[in-house]
UniProtKB/TrEMBL annotation:
Protein's gene: LOC102714861
Enzyme class: transferase
Gene3D superfamilies registered for this protein in UniProt: 2.60.120.200
Species of the source: Oryza brachyantha (malo sina)
Designated name of the protein: Xyloglucan endotransglucosylase/hydrolase
Chain's role: Catalyzes xyloglucan endohydrolysis (XEH) and/or endotransglycosylation (XET). Cleaves and religates xyloglucan polymers, an essential constituent of the primary cell wall, and thereby participates in cell wall construction of growing tissues.
Subcellular location: Secreted, Cell wall; Secreted, Extracellular space, Apoplast
Keyword Methyltransferase: no
Family the entry assigns: Belongs to the glycosyl hydrolase 16 family.
Gene Ontology molecular-function annotations: hydrolase activity, hydrolyzing O-glycosyl compounds; xyloglucan:xyloglucosyl transferase activity
PTM remark: Contains at least one intrachain disulfide bond essential for its enzymatic activity.
Length: 350
């Protein structure tokens, strides 16, 4: 409905009481405009390194899965699938000592309980008992329920100290590709989804070798996690819905590749962009805090049953009130499901 514009005379003659009634609306409108402007600035400030994508043949090798790994688009798009026979996976040809690693990923649709898609860095093949690891794990669900995302950090084989966090998403990851990235420097690790930082781990003195510091390769896998992935193993993979297909594109390897024989790193020419990106601006940090307030469903820093004294890298503040002693969020869904599916990628930064 089109509103008639009031004349200046009408505005001048408006009673003071009416102005008082309109004041909250005017303030709300101004606040909304300011927030839109802030998000626009944030989108520019939060830009991450954009190195050229690496084709599968140039940068990766198949780990397992035979025909369950297929290349498309001249090797720039990879499909890995899970069926009754096997899952599939691939890894980078080189190991890297720090850098920026990302992929655009589209997850299996429909019933996907028990299915695990992982995008992660690890050196477990070289350091079996003292391995480092940085994880994105995507946990499937039953039909009508959403995929969940889990991140984790291990250093020097510190699997006894679980540093996992779990989140919901503000979009459907099965409808389109979304970008997931890991930024790893000598003293900081940042996980991103679609340019938005979702988690930061800062190295502390007491962490020691538990902060990942050895060369790692990049991996992508899909496999059967029926024993734990969905509701603690309550829902298993149902192969009636197989094959479960995960697609990867825009695979990026940007860091210091380590020579297997000399152990000497060879860094990308513009490696300085990583060090620039790892220092978050105030607006980026605010975006991360908004994401975590709205979408985090479990945080190890808030798990007082597991860690009565939080690990040294945890900065626990008033947000701890949002979590139960188990580390689970008090409000398991703060996202607004109906609203979520009406929002496009452009306004996904809250």
């Amino acid at each position: 409905m089109r509103r008639r514009r009031s004349s200046s005379k009408q505005a001048t003659a408006m009673a003071p009481g009416c102005l008082l009634l309109l004041l909250p609306l005017l303030l709300a409108s101004a606040a909304a405009s300011w927030e839109e402007e802030e998000d626009a600035v944030l989108a520019v400030a939060a830009r991450l390194p954009r190195p050229a994508a690496v084709s599968f043949r140039d940068g990766y090798t198949q780990l397992f899965g035979d025909s369950n790994l297929a290349l498309h688009g001249d090797g720039k798009r990879v499909r890995i699938s899970l069926d009754e026979r096997t899952g599939a996976g691939f890894a980078s040809q080189d190991a890297y000592l720090q850098g920026f690693f990302s992929a655009s990923i589209k997850l299996p649709a429909d019933y996907a309980a028990g299915v695990v898609v992982a995008f992660y860095m690890s050196n477990g093949d070289v350091y079996e008992k003292t391995h480092d690891e940085l994880d994105f794990e995507f946990l499937g669900n039953i039909k009508g329920r959403e995929w969940r995302v889990q991140t984790n950090v291990y250093g020097n084989g510190s699997t006894s100290v679980g540093r996992e966090e779990r989140y919901g998403l503000w979009f459907d990851p099965t409808e389109d590709f979304h970008r997931y990235a890991i930024l790893w420097s000598h003293d900081r690790i940042v996980f991103y989804i679609d340019e938005t930082p979702i988690r930061e781990v800062q190295r502390t003195k007491s962490m020691g070798a538990q902060f990942p510091s050895k060369p790692m390769s990049l991996y992508a896998t899909i496999w059967d996690g029926s024993s734990w992935a969905t509701s603690g193993g309550r829902y298993k993979v149902n192969y009636k819905y197989a094959p479960f297909v995960a697609e990867f594109s825009e695979l990026m390897l940007h860091g210091c590749a380590v020579d297997a024989s000399t152990r000497a790193p060879t860094c990308s020419p513009d490696i300085s962009s990583i060090h620039d990106a790892v220092a978050m601006s105030g607006r980026q940090r605010s975006a991360m805090e908004r994401f975590r307030t709205k979408h985090m469903t479990y945080g190890y820093c808030y798990d007082r049953l597991r860690y009565p004294t939080p690990p040294s890298e945890c900065n626990v503040g008033t947000e701890a009130e949002l979590f139960l002693p188990s580390g689970e969020a008090r409000a398991m869904d703060r996202r607004g499901r109906a609203r979520r599916h009406r929002r496009g990628p452009a306004d996904s930064a809250f």
